[in-house]
Amino acid sequence: MDYWLDITAYIGLGAGVTLKIFFVTLLFSVPLGVVCALGKLGKFRILRGALGVYTWVFRGTPLLLQLFFTYYGLGILSDGRIAFDPETAAYITFVFNYAAYFTEIFRGGIQSIGKGQYEAAKALGMNPGLTMKRIILPQAIKIILPPMGNEAINLIKDTALCSVITVTEILRNANRVMSRDFNVGALVIAALVYLLMTFAVIQVFRKLEKRYAYYTIR
Amino acid sequence: MCAPRDRVEELNGIEANQTEIVKATNLHKSFGRLHVLKGVDFYANRGEILSVVGPSGSGKSTLLRLLNHLETADRGSIRIDGRYIAKENADGRSEYISGKKVLKICSKLGMVFQNFNLFPHKSVIENLMEAPMTVAGVSKDAAAEKAESLLEKVGLTDKRNAYPGQLSGGQQQRVAIARALAMDPEIMLFDEPTSALDPELIGEVLGVIKNLAAERITMIIVTHEMNFARGISDRILFMDGGLILADGTPDDILVNPSHPRIRDFLRKIIREQ
Predict the structure, then answer these.
(1) Residues near B125 by Cβ (< 8 Å), separated by ≥ 6?
(2) What residue of A is the nearest CA neighbor of B67?
(3) Closest chain A residue to B69, measured at CA
(4) DSSP 3-state helix, strand, coil percentages of chain B (rounded to 5)?
(5) What's the domain count of chain B?
(6) CB B70 to CB A218 under 8 A?
(7) Which residue of A121, A125, A216 is in closest CB contact with B120?
């Protein structure tokens, strides 16, 4: 029994790291995604082009490759002048990767609000900034919640990729137990921890969606 | 909107003719290849109730939307309450003053849309309070008080906490009228306010507009309701093919139309009804 408690605690240690990556990624990638989405919908063509390249690169290449690039590649390219510890490399990669997805989700959400809303706001004297803040974004949130929930679940699971750059998260710790003791139970424990986390995420998003269920967008 | 500012500003003085609260000259507007307005001269006097009628695609709505800058004119000038928002330059192109100033001048105009365009995430009373609080800087209490009195005016006091999605089309349009009035406009623009409504809901909206007319607020109404237009209007414009073909009293236009296009249009409408 002590053995199982021990390995569970060890894997639980990894869960702390996983949660850290999860929250840091959301904390930075959501605002970054909002800004990039507004930039993509803005009138500056060069900025739109640059953001197009950004989302294309980060959505169009494997997250694993991006992790390798940040952790190993940048160090080699810069002759060791840029060197991140594994966790920092994970934060940086995940923030930019997820912000790219959020950019597209937010852009789609904002674009799905009809032009009648902009016109009504303008006819009432509201300037574009005020219209975005008070009329468009609050409605876009309702639309983007379901895809955001999906991304949040993906994010929990994607953190497992960080094990390959030696971040001591859930899967890495489980894997070490397994190869040390030839015990597949470690993987089962890891799976249960992931399930627990994704269940919590699902519950949070269910609550959020309920909170926005009080109105319907025609 | 990115017109050279100082040039337009010089032209932006107060005009002498104070009875003409809206004045537009030689308005042209194309959407791609579609030439929607082909040189329209338009005016509305202070306190006047003006209806614009004519077949679909004649440019009525576009004219209305140019007046409050929901569309920009290609050519021609637009003056609201003595101040130009667009002025024809030497090449005949419309040159607009800055977007901020247009927004300010156009805040004298309230607009009611065919599809209501209420804010679905805000309750009825929040719809009425939004612009007064965020644009006009009115306090929350004052905005709420004003909203209550407007809801009473349109007969929807009991719906103050409902959301637009819970209301019938007629109720939504009455809220939309109240929302426009909350900004104390000097001119109300109605863009086919009953065209999206079920027949049995048209009456309640027309009733609200009729009550407004009694307050002698300037109103420009694009409508297909001929009897309503005839009853309420001081003057009626008939538009067809991007031009104003006739301008006269309701009797001139709708009872004894001299223009064959109008007779033709009225015959079609009567047949439909």
Answers:
(1) B144, B147, B148, B151, B160, B161
(2) A123
(3) A123
(4) 40, 25, 35
(5) 1
(6) no
(7) A216
What's the CA gap between A173 and B91, in Å, rounded?
Answer: 74
Please give the backbone phi and psi of residue A83, each rounded to the nearest 5 degrees, phi first: -140, 120
Q: Which domain holds residue B253?
A: 46-69+107-272
Q: Is the dihedral of CA A40, A46, A52, A57 positive or negative?
A: negative
- B254 part of a folded domain: yes
Residues of chain B in contact with residue A118, where contact means CB-CB under 8 angstroms, are none
Chain segment A57-108, per-residue pLDDT in tens: 999 999 999 999 999 999 899 988 888 999 999 999 999 999 999 999 999 9
Give me the residue from A120, A126, A127 closest to B117, CB to CB.
Answer: A120
Quote the radius of gyration of chain B (alpha carbons, Å): 19
Q: Of how many residues is chain B composed? A: 273
B92 confidence band (pLDDT: 50, 70, 90): confident
Q: How far is CA A34 from CA A98, A141, B123, B125, B198, in A?
A: 12, 11, 26, 29, 40
Please count the structural domains in chain A.
Answer: 1
A206: in domain = yes
Interface predicted TM-score of the whole assembly (ipTM), two decimals: 0.89
- pLDDT at residue A82, rounded to an integer: 86
Q: Which residues of B touch A121 (CB under 8 A)?
A: 131
Residue B43, phi then psi, degrees to nearest 5: -145, 155
Query: Which residues in chain A are contacts of B134 at CB distance < 8 A?
Result: 126, 130, 134
